[in-house]
Amino acid sequence: MTPPSATFYETQNGSSRPSTKAPLEPGLSEEKAKVQMPKFPGPPKFKDKYEEREFLKGRLAAAFRIFGKYGFDEGVAGHITLRDPVDPTTFWVNPFGVAFSLIKKSDLIQVDHDGKIIDGGEVRLLNAAAFMIHSAIHQARPDVMCAAHSHSIYGRTFCSLGRKLDTITQDGCAFHDDHVLYENFNGVVLAEKEGKDIAACLGDRKAALLQNHGLLTVGGTIEAAVFWFISLEKCCHAQLMADAAAAGRGGETIKIGDAEARYTYKTVGTPAAGWFNAKPIFDMMHVQAGADYLK
Residues 6 or more apart from 240 whose CB is under 8 A from it? Predict the structure, then answer.
């Protein structure tokens, strides 16, 4: 029998029946129970594009330090790009062969869409795969300020399964109907065509699972792209564990319904949510790295 405290009745059209609404806490009116989400802060606004460039280059350097801290580096693989606010036809990227955890703002290199390095630090080596993938994405998606890719362990493991993520957690709702599976693998991406194929497959989504390769995320801010990558990596980890645990019991994971997932997406999957979720991570890195990465 249902405990008396868990059931109450409401009257509709003259008849009384059990209510489907969750009961309120004692003394809490329905009006007061309608909690409004606070208005979150957002990225700073700049009138001077050169000032914005310097700020964003600092954020990009911090993003590499964060990737290094999370163990997303694998030798010289991996790259994050920033569309230049002064000349949006170019982007900034990490120099090939410099460790994520050591990257400073002054190390970053600026590349045009012909693959020519036009500005940047002393190490002016460009990862060809970084150029092929990111150049195509930045050209196809004017809304993308930042794109991130690396060979993280759980991401690349999940990408070997040839499937998209199931929506099995609240965090996973951020990627509900907002990620794709790129099913081709032709080795290191050194051909222009494959870069364009990846961009076309990504479409207007925030993330791609590159089969037998790794994760790719994009965002209208550096912070959003970085957080989506961190979260997607953890979602891959969660599903790998959940699938294994469920299979061991002869069952399967419980999926979140489409309507519930879409509703939750409006809170956890928006660009603002991506930026805000990344804020404490960037704050932490600023404290831990000091001003070194801003040099």
Answer: 154, 157, 158
Helix H segments across 99-205?
A: 128-140, 153-158, 192-202
Q: How buried is 35 (Cβ within 10 angstroms: 0-12 exposed, 13-18 middle, 19+ buried)?
A: exposed
Supply the pLDDT for residue 31: 59
Rounded to the nearest 5 degrees, what angle is found at the Cα of 102, between the Cα atoms of 96 and 107? 55
Q: What is the DSSP letter of 144?
A: -
Contact present, 195 and 127 (Cβ < 8 Å): no
Q: Between 184 and 270, name the one with better pLDDT.
A: 270
Tell me which amino acid residue 6 is. Answer: A
Torsion angles phi and psi, residue 96, rounded to 5 = -65, 125
From residue 98, how far is each of 9, 79, 121 by CA, in Å? 66, 11, 11
User: pLDDT for 154-177, tens place per residue?
Assistant: 999 999 999 999 999 999 999 999
Q: Distance between CA atoms of 258 and 293, rounded to whole angstroms?
A: 42
Q: What is the pLDDT of residues 215-256, one digit of tens each?
A: 999 999 999 999 999 999 999 999 999 999 999 999 999 999
Work out whether the CA dihedral 61, 65, 67, 73 comes out positive or negative.
positive
**pLDDT reported for residue 13:** 52
* Structure tokens that stand for 153 in this block: 């362990």
* Count of other CB atoms within 10 angstroms of residue 254: 10
Predicted TM-score (pTM) of the model is: 0.86
What is the residue-wise DSSP string for 57-109?
HHHHHHHHHHHHHTT--BTTB-EEEEE-SSSTT-EEEPPTT--GGG--GGG-E
Which residues are CB-contacts of 221 (< 8 A; sequence separation ≥ 6)?
43, 145, 146, 271, 274, 275
